[in-house]
Amino acid sequence: MNISALQKERAKYQPKLPKSLVGAVKLVEGAKTQSVADQKDIEKLFPNTYGMPLITFEEGEVKKDRPAINVGVILSGGQAPGGHNVISGIFDGIKKINQESRLYGFLGGPGGLVDHKYVELTAEIIDEYRNTGGFDIIGSGRTKLEEEWQFDKGLEIANDLNLNALVIIGGDDSNTNACVLAEYYAAKDAGVQVIGCPKTIDGDLKNEMIETSFGFDTATKVYSELIGNIQRDANSAKKYWHFIKLMGRSASHIGLECALKTQPNITLISEEVADKKQTLEEIVEYMAGIVAKRAENGDNFGVALIPEGLIEFIPEMKVLISELNDMLAEGSETEKEFKMLKKSHRNEWVAGHLTDDSAKVFKSLPSGIATQLTLDRDPHGNVQVSLIETEKLLGEMVKTKLEKMKKAGEYVGKFGTQYHFFGYEGRCAAPSNFDADYCYSLGYTASVLISDGKTGYMSSVRNLTSPAEEWIAGGVPVTTMMNMEKRHGHMKPVIQKALVELEGAPYKYFVSKRGEWAFTTQFVYPGPIQYFGPSEVCDLTTETLKFEKA
Amino acid sequence: MNISALQKERAKYQPKLPKSLVGAVKLVEGAKTQSVADQKDIEKLFPNTYGMPLITFEEGEVKKDRPAINVGVILSGGQAPGGHNVISGIFDGIKKINQESRLYGFLGGPGGLVDHKYVELTAEIIDEYRNTGGFDIIGSGRTKLEEEWQFDKGLEIANDLNLNALVIIGGDDSNTNACVLAEYYAAKDAGVQVIGCPKTIDGDLKNEMIETSFGFDTATKVYSELIGNIQRDANSAKKYWHFIKLMGRSASHIGLECALKTQPNITLISEEVADKKQTLEEIVEYMAGIVAKRAENGDNFGVALIPEGLIEFIPEMKVLISELNDMLAEGSETEKEFKMLKKSHRNEWVAGHLTDDSAKVFKSLPSGIATQLTLDRDPHGNVQVSLIETEKLLGEMVKTKLEKMKKAGEYVGKFGTQYHFFGYEGRCAAPSNFDADYCYSLGYTASVLISDGKTGYMSSVRNLTSPAEEWIAGGVPVTTMMNMEKRHGHMKPVIQKALVELEGAPYKYFVSKRGEWAFTTQFVYPGPIQYFGPSEVCDLTTETLKFEKA
Fold first, then answer.
1. Residues of chain A with pLDDT > 70: what percent?
2. Which terminus of chain B is more solvent-facing, meaning fewer CB atoms within 10 Å of its CB: N or C?
3. Which residues does diphosphate bind (chains A, B) (predicted)?
């Protein structure tokens, strides 16, 4: 295999561990826990895994002759930097417990468990993937583990391989399912434990015991490198507004973190838009206002960050999309009528069949986007929100707004745009020192929890703004993070998604600064992730954590 | 100013210089030179700056009491990483000659010289910009210095500021103009020297004496970082083909270099397309063939690199675009007729008014692209080739082709696409060690050439695959790079653009490997630029240079 010079050097990196994990580990049980809400419902649904104590690791005395443990590991959902280090952490952890321990990787995500597709992860394989990005060691997948028949198929292979435990590395949904699986196996007394690990670049799986999900640090560093480079270009050429969309369908943590790192002129935060019930027109006015005011200073350039999920947080757009979904639902009478129309007549017809408010919004959209909303639908006839090029939608609407302002004498300037969308660029980057250390610690923690017979826990490594040796490792029952939410018409126990807190310190700092950043140019250029330099450059984690823990 | 942790540490970096520049410098004159072609014409046009000798620097004896020199510096055209280091190299160079020397920066590109907009670059300003990316220290611009009145306006301010010389940092066009300016001032005996520095991320300003233009190394490293990350994502998720367009309107050096670094499945090289007179259909067939063959192995994913300038290298597209330009020229009868038509009838009408061959090509285009070709025109009515989303054009056509192949039983697989365009992401990155050193050396070299009274020279630093101390610095007369070419209907002396050599070692290696890279997955993941690690990781320059110098 031809590997890069950096990869060769980086393979040698030994991830840092919390002090408590370096030698022998003692488990300290804390108080019994309860779920964050809907305690009675959750307790009823998880009789075997509810109320378990928090676990904290401390330095302990070496235990001898611990039995070998066999573990199966699953990567679930979208890639996040550091997944390979979680796996190498598990591997080193179980091998330290007993050299006869074995690690199996299920291939292509949770589907691999159900379909009995796996590979044994030997030292040779693990060594090839230490400190690398991607999930390619065993692949990932989006199959949801939700049905009992899947659990039973999983148990078959677990028994065949003599597995003590499964480790599921995933986001909020995957960890919810991991918990259901843990409960199911516990109720059956099946002898297979389930441990979760908190993964997602979106940063929306976090709480008191899970300070951040892994991958968020690295991904936002890559995006911030690129945003910084583009800002420097904008400030050198002084002729473009760069509208940059950032991956992440629900929360705006990525945009907020990148804003704190790079200080762009505009950053939209979906949670704020929803909270203030902003209209698309209001958002466009806000952006055009900043463009116009910068133009007064002769600055016909700038950078705007836009969260991918914005559209669904704008109340009137949510209503419009839901009306369109009903109107164009597959097989409906209205859909048939729509399809009979000439293409050039369709948008007018659609507007005529919406409520007045939605018709107004629909007509305000650039025609290309309006057409896209009626054409690009999924097999159920639903608008595919992820295909909407929100950055171009806003760019075109800001342009139209500025033209009106120009006629009214409220704007003198030039408005040229460049569009970018960053997502795939960062999901598989090689992990930063922080994510390399954090992930390795999460994996190592999982091995200790398993060795101690725990199930229904998530690996927890806290105190993350301190040096790694001072991190606090342990386990937190997944049920503590749960509440009941409506999903597809039914109430279900799920892990609460952590949206951007409008009362939280990171957001409040951003709000206190954004006016300044908008009108003057205070760009910061973070540059690329460094692996070998001074600790101030290489080991720091996110601004979000810094503010949250301050 | 709020600067990033990396920027703070990176400011301390002392760029490496060739041995000959560290102490006192001796200039050694080589043989007289001639232009690369059209010698008589060039000699006639440049009587004062033609035939000058090559200059090589060697270690010399310290000269005392050298007079102060005043220099004006101009950044011309698109940004490239390292521009600030050229300027700090000039600054340190002239200050070493005499502490009373002064450096002025003309603002916003060549236009600053004509409009007399400048700033004195003091040590305090220079120190803020050492080893940083961007051209924001004085800004850049695209004004062309071509007219005598501009030269005369420039001379006025040069005399006002008592300048000994101008240093013009630019690409082939800007250096051509620098040479014309040098000749003009020499003919007038104006007492102002002109020195050029070879800049462009495109890598198309190079020859025997200019082994590479600055910025190419850093920009291709940034793009390769991103391509590598995307490849790792493709190989983890195994569900998308990523079509990545890379900036650069003429040569495909960027695509070739990135391919050598990352080993993607498909890389299109514009020069090959032109040489083989490939049709759009042939290119699409080539791409679809690779997609289909990978699908046979179950690999429904991959990465394809596409040079931004491709369209203009496809002979039939060039003809089509030229016919469209004539047909829709502003004010023409055909344009009037076109404008009267209903939008839905236009493409059919256009096809009817093209030659048969062009009509066939036009009809083969996805309708959105066809429409774009007739609508997005510049003020002269010309098709704006830069607006064509070549990556989407190819993605859609490959998809259509695969659907046909599927019906014919020649393809079984899924084809999902993600599109990317990288350009602005890399033009203002902080320079790699190579570019930081190379640029600083180019600037330092310029100061020595100026101090020795030279004009019409370009800074030349060679032997670049060796450690910096072994680099060979000196000067090369710009006229050596010139030939006569038709520009806007007239023969003009211009620096020959260096396209990808189809007989050159980098391209030949690529061709010998691309089949393997296409069908098996041999992705390489270069990772981000490192500034502090082992020399193998931090100091190496491009694969292109490695192969060219091997």
1. 100
2. N
3. 78
Residue A444 contacts by C-beta under 8 Å, 6 or more apart in sequence?
A17, A21, A89, A90, A92, A93, A473
The DSSP bridge pattern shows strands A102-106 and A118-120 to be antiparallel
**Interface mutation vs chain B, best among A224, A233, A258, A546, most B CBs within 10 Å:** A233
Pick the CATH number of A216-427+504-549 from 3.40.50.460, 3.90.1570.30, 1.10.10.10, 3.40.50.1000: 3.40.50.460
**pLDDT at site B2:** 83
Chain B residues close to A5, C-beta within 8 Å: 526, 536-537, 540
What is the b/e burial string over B234-262, where b = at least 16 CB atoms within 10 angstroms of the residue's CB?
A: bbbbbebbbbbbbbbebbbbbbbbbbbbb
Write out the two tokens for B383: 């098709």
Q: How far is A427 from chain B (nearest CA, A)?
A: 7
A17-215+431-495 and A216-427+504-549 agree in CATH topology: yes
pTM: 0.97
Which pLDDT value is given to residue B509?
98
The answer to whether the beta carbons of residues B36 and B481 sit under 8 Å apart is: yes
pLDDT digits (tens, 9 = 90+) for A196-217: 999 999 999 999 999 999 999 9
**Taking CB atoms and an 8 Å limit, are B236 and A425 in contact across chains?**
no
Partners of residue B375 in chain A, C-beta under 8 Å? none
Q: Which two tokens stand for residue A96?
A: 């330290």
* Domain positions in chain A: 17-215+431-495, 216-427+504-549
Question: Rounded CA gap, B251 and B273, in Å?
Answer: 12
Q: Do B537 and A537 touch (CB under 8 A)?
A: no
Give the tens place of pLDDT for each residue, B219-254. Answer: 999 999 999 999 999 999 999 999 999 998 889 999
Would you tell me which CATH number, out of the four given (3.30.497.10, 3.10.105.10, 3.50.50.60, 3.40.50.450), belongs to the domain B17-215+431-495? 3.40.50.450
Helices (H), B34-105: 39-45, 83-97
Nearest CB to A522: which of B2, B6, B232? B2
Interface contacts A/B by beta carbons within 8 Å: 188
Position A487 scores a pLDDT of 86
- Helical H runs in A353-410? 356-364, 367-375, 390-407
Indicate which of B220, B224, B229 best probes the interface with A, i.e. most A CBs within 10 Å of its own CB. B229
Residue A44 distance to chain B (closest CA, Å): 37
Nearest Cβ partner of A533 from B9, B222, B418?
B9
What pLDDT, on the 0 to 100 scale, is given for residue A1? 63
pLDDT mean across residues, chain A: 95
- pLDDT average, residue stretch B330-351: 89
| Residues A16-41, mean pLDDT to the nearest whole number | 95
B317 touches B361 (CB < 8 A): yes
- Do B427 and A140 count as a contact with CB atoms less than 8 A apart? no
Type and span of the H or E element at B283: helix B280-296
B202 is annotated as an active-site residue: yes
Rg value, chain A, Cα: 25
Among B425, B516, B529, most A C-beta atoms within 10 A, so best to mutate, is: B425
Classify residue A380 by its DSSP letter: T
